[in-house]
Amino acid sequence: MNNTELEKLVHYQDIDLMMREAEEVEKTLGFQIEGCEKLQAAKEEQARHISPRYLNTYKRLRTRYKRPIVPVKDDTCLGCFAKLPTAFMGMGKTDQKLMTCEHCGRILYWMV
Ligand SMILES: [Zn+2]
């Protein structure tokens, strides 16, 4: 994969998901988990390296989905399991632009 912007966004999502898990555990157990503020700092730092256009798309999708960025496997969106059109394949692998699933709207990334 040569889409570095997307890689950064995927990394941002990783931190985001970790934070959310920690928050859920905190709520369930009723105590604070150490390192949460470190995650928050890492997330903010990461956000600075992502273009606002990408970040805004992510944040918009984030209100609908727990995981706004999903991998593509066997030409299938792993968010909604819809088969992607063939024309999508080549584009997503090479283009620098953000590809979203026609069916669910999630951001797609191709695993190498
Ligand atoms: Zn989808």
Overall 3D form? globular
- How is the CATH topology named? Helix Hairpins
Number of strands: 3
CATH class call:
Mainly Alpha
Question: What does it look like?
Answer:
The chain has a 3-stranded mixed beta sheet with strand order 2-1-3. Helix 1 (4-29) runs antiparallel to helix 2. The longest helix has 26 residues, at 4-29. The relative contact order is 0.18. The chain has one domain: Helix Hairpins, CATH 1.10.287. It is mainly alpha-helical and 112 residues long. The protein is built from 4 helices and 3 strands, in the order αααββαβ. Helices cover 53% and strands 10% of the residues. It has helices at 4-29, 36-48, 52-62, 86-94, and strands at residues 69-73, 76-77, 107-110. The structure holds zinc ion.
Task: Please render the helix and strand layout as text.
Elements: H1 4-29, H2 36-48, H3 52-62, E1 69-73, E2 76-77, H4 86-94, E3 107-110
Parallel strand pairs: 1-3
Antiparallel strand pairs: 1-2
Helix pairs in contact: 1-2
Bound molecules: zinc ion.
